[in-house]
Amino acid sequence: MAPNDSAETNGGTRGTAAGRRKAARYIVPVAVAGVAAATIGLVPALASSGDPDLPKIGAQELIEKIAASDTEQLSGTVKISTDLGIPSLGGLAESFAPGGAGGDGGKGGSSAHPQERMTELASGTHTLRIAADGPDKQRLSILDNASEYSLIHNGDQVWAYDSKSDQAYHATEKQAGKDAGRDAGKKSGHPVPEGVPTTPKALAEQVLKAAGPTTSVTVDGTAQVAGRDAYKLVVKPKQSGSTIGSVTVAVDAKSGVPLKFTLLPAAGGKAVVDAGFTEVDFAKPDASLFTFTPPKGTEVTEADDAKAQHKADKGLGDLIPGADAAQLGAGEPGAKNTKVIGEGWSAIAEITTPGATGLPSKASGDVPAEAQQFLDALGDKVTGKFGSGTVFKTRLVNALMTDDGKVYVGAVTKDALVKAANSAS
User: Fold this and answer.
1) What angle do CA 251, 253, 256 make, to 5 degrees?
2) Which of 135, 188, 204, 411 has a CA-to-CA distance to 245 between 20 and 30 Å?
3) Chain centroid offset of residue 177 CA
4) How far apart, in whole angstroms, are the C-alpha atoms of residue 40 and residue 198?
């Protein structure tokens, strides 16, 4: 099918301003792995059985179709593949996990904690099974060769269970980080930690909310995903300097539900993130999917206990000055230590770390050898009007941390970061 008509977004696209503000939340100091985890949720390309012949539809009309989609019941399998170009964390990841190596270390942490497990989606290929029955019942399972990790939301109860370690995590909806009450479920749509989209729909909504005058949106033919006919919505930056080349969303022609999401880098090569259904069913899921009772002998961690343990573990704060503070809101608009330079796809957040200190070094004895090795693998030394610093790279998000304690970060090139730092000096 030939490409359909196109539309360039403008101020009329709903949620534009809110989307830009939300984009700043991805901008945290070089917890690049954490930034990556907040921008994930995606899957390997799915085989197509031929492009279906569908009625023409305009870009704005297709966007409205997505927004109007009221599908609340579905189940299916999602394949997620993420290639952010981040070196393997190896033992470093375990050293910063709650409770030390293995995620618990006998210190009260839990390998079933959702925030810890969702970061796994920041790299590699994963198979997820998802199910939803309205705003109050969702289930997400990460499948492994011989184990399964499940996150279950039923009413005000949230359970997570890791079959490999036989550990469980339990919280009420409010403890899990949502607003209290039924409205929270409607807003979140799933029990996954805030900022970690895991379905094509969640990913598409984030991209479309951020769309504005700096964005080109077109309908580029059709596809078949998980046996269903779909339109392909293509979103591209009109600005230079972004690391994002394009985002393609396959939208179910009947329901308006996004079925597949693919983000290609401006530099070329395979997708940075690619997520899509391999199977999907819009019938009401079995009620048993949303019930959970810990098996006998399971170690259960309650949310309040996990929160206390998290406070005891400094995590990235020992490695990146101000990282913990940034993760707790430094990226929010209006934060005293943060401002946004530019707009749209080339927006860059400038963050002043508490104490205005740069990176610790191995020479100072502040950084373990394996941590320094990880930082060196990510970083390039740069200089400019601002002085000197280090650029930490992924295929999507890059961050410049200056030696005087400022961080410039966004989905932009290294040159764009240096330019921003120079202009702010």
Assistant:
1) 55
2) 188
3) 16
4) 7
Give residue-wise pLDDT tens across range 354-363.
665 555 554 5
Distances (CA, A) of 1 to 5, 22, 220, 236: 12, 35, 9, 21
Phi, psi (degrees; rounded to nearest 5) at 397? -110, 130
Query: Distance (Å, rounded) from C-alpha 3 to C-alpha 232?
Result: 9
Q: Which residues of 12-45 are buried (b: 16+ CB within 10 A; e: fewer)?
A: ebebbeebbbbbbbbbbbbbbbbbbbbbbbbbbe
Query: Do the beta carbons of residue 140 and residue 198 sit within 8 Å?
Result: yes
3-class state of residue 356 by DSSP: coil
- Cα first-last separation, the chain: 51
**Alpha carbons 162 and 183: distance in angstroms, whole number:** 28
Mean pLDDT of 68-91: 82
pTM for the model: 0.72
Identify the sign of the CA torsion 205, 210, 212, 215.
negative
Structure tokens at 57: 């539809």
Which residues make Cβ contacts (< 8 Å) with residue 170, sequence separation at least 6?
A: 157, 158, 159, 160, 300, 301, 302, 303
- Asked whether the predicted pLDDT for residue 377 surpasses 60, the reply is yes
Domains of the chain: 6-311 (2.50.20.10), 316-424 (3.30.310)
Measured CA distances, 151 to 157, 210, 292, 301, 317 (Å): 11, 28, 10, 14, 27
Q: Which of 235, 239, 39, 242 is nearest to 121 (CA)?
A: 39
Integer CA distances (angstroms), 36 to 129, 161, 203, in order: 22, 24, 13
